[in-house]
Design a protein that fits this description.
Oligomer: single chain
Distance between the termini: 64 Å
Number of helices: 16
InterPro entries: BilAc:Na_symport/Acr3 (IPR002657), Bilac:Na_transpt (IPR004710), Na+/solute_symporter_sf (IPR038770)
Helix content: 55-70%
Structural class: mainly alpha
Mean pLDDT: 76
Biased composition (Pro residues): 62-74
Keywords: Membrane, Transmembrane, Transmembrane helix
Low-confidence stretches: 16-104
Number of domains: 1
Transmembrane segments: 114-137, 143-160, 172-192, 198-217, 229-250, 270-288, 295-316, 322-348
Biased composition (Low complexity): 19-29, 75-106
Strand content: under 5%
CATH topology: Na+/H+ antiporter like fold
């Protein structure tokens, strides 16, 4: 019996491996700006699926849920380009799809890690310069509010209508974040100042750090921690806009125990150095959005330079007192920041928030706008009072990055 002719094996087309695309330096620079609120929008809009790839504690056979509060790909609020391997707009990647090295999310993550690594190093170098060569910064004190205005103007340039609409999506969660921000940190500053017996100037400066709005570095570490970045951006923005109304009364109530506080003058200073620059930046963004986007790669480094000079001026002005007070100030700052992170997370758990929102709340509470605190302390209490804010500006980025790394290895 004749056998059948052998079947020919189907010829498969050779698989084409996409070429590895290097991370764009311009995009990495834009992401780095989230440390100073220059690229908070880019982080918030990073594809949520990028947050879930390569996480060993999560099953690879289930699609990643969308980031709470973030616009989905293809929606009007989504700024990131579509992933080349994704299907229709808004559809998740295939289960277990590997991450492309050139994907927008992986590029954003690399840029974010660069931000939280480079920023503290640059600020620490600036502080060392002020300590070793204080005479070089003699007479620079009056420039500090204007340097802070540059940073706040950059924050306004990144605000967009989707950011503002996101505030109204979950008002009760936003209210919880603002309440925790303006209750936990001021109270902790007051308690730690008493517990450590800080001198009046340092005690007032530590309390003022607690009375400041949320720090903009919280946006980038929330992203690295796979947290609710939309909530982080909303709380940071609103707490900053509310600071002229909230920070001076809190400082009068708590820091006034240590040093006299002119709350009216402080309101004026915050309006001039925070609110007006933010609103001006927002107006420029709305009127010249495309031109502003072209400049986003340069703005982060302007903010780095401004914050670095602020820290150098503050350290130079208090160089004589640093030798005796450095250890106590560092301990106070570590306690203030660490307890703020822990209590912020606990507040989210008590309110039964999901894990991403709880992580965002932890960073929003524990990380402060130390640039504003340094400017106000130097202007109202003297250079020594600004020392806690200068130390805080370095430490909260270090602790935030470490906690974000730990969170990123935990299931959401």
């Amino acid at each position: 019996m004749a056998g059948h002719p052998p079947r020919s094996s189907p010829v498969r087309a050779p698989e084409v491996t996409p070429a590895r695309r290097p991370a764009s330096p311009a995009h990495a620079a834009e992401v780095a700006a989230a440390c100073f609120r220059i690229a908070g929008r880019d982080l918030r809009n990073a594809p949520a699926r990028a947050l879930h790839r390569g996480v060993p504690n999560e099953p690879r056979n289930s699609p990643a849920p969308p980031d709470p509060g973030s616009p989905s790909p293809g929606s009007p609020g989504h700024a990131g380009p579509a992933h080349p391997a994704s299907g229709p707009a808004g559809a998740p990647d295939a289960p277990g799809a590997p991450s492309s090295p050139g994907a927008p999310g992986s590029t954003a993550r690399r840029g974010a890690r660069i931000a939280v690594t480079v920023f503290p190093v640059l600020v620490l170098a600036a502080g060392a310069t002020g300590l070793l060569a204080p005479s070089a910064f003699t007479g620079w004190g009056p420039a500090v509010p204007y340097l802070l205005g540059v940073v706040m103007f950059g924050m306004g340039l990144t605000l967009t209508p989707p950011d503002l609409r996101g505030v109204a999506r979950r008002p009760w969660v936003l209210l919880l974040g603002l309440s925790a921000q303006y209750l936990i940190m001021p109270g902790l500053g007051w308690l730690i100042a008493h517990a450590l017996g800080l001198p009046p100037a340092l005690a007032a400066g530590l309390v003022l750090v607690g009375c400041a709005p949320g720090g903009t570095a919280s946006n980038v570490v929330t992203y690295l921690a796979r947290g609710d970045v939309a909530l982080s951006v909303s709380v940071t923005s609103v707490s900053t806009l509310l600071s002229p109304l909230v920070t001076p009364p809190l400082a009068l109530l708590l820091a006034g125990e240590f040093l006299p506080v002119d709350a009216g003058s402080m309101v004026t200073d915050i309006l001039r150095t925070v609110l007006l620059p933010v609103l001006a930046g927002l107006a420029v963004r709305l009127l010249a959005g495309r031109r502003v986007e072209r400049a986003l790669g340069v703005l982060p480094w302007l903010s780095v330079a401004a914050i670095g000079v602020i820290v150098a001026v503050v350290v130079a002005g208090s160089a004589d007192a640093i030798g005796a007070a450095a250890g106590t100030v560092v301990l106070a700052v570590i306690l203030h920041n660490g307890l703020g992170l822990a209590l912020g997370w606990a507040a989210g758990r008590a309110a039964r928030l999901d894990a991403p929102a709880g992580r965002a709340l932890a960073f929003e509470v524990g990380m402060q706008n130390s640039g504003l605190a340094a400017s106000l302390a130097a202007g109202h209490f003297g250079a020594v009072a600004a020392l806690p804010a200068a130390v805080f500006s370095v430490w909260h980025n270090v602790s935030g990055a470490l906690l974000a790394t730990w969170f990123s290895r935990r299931p959401r």
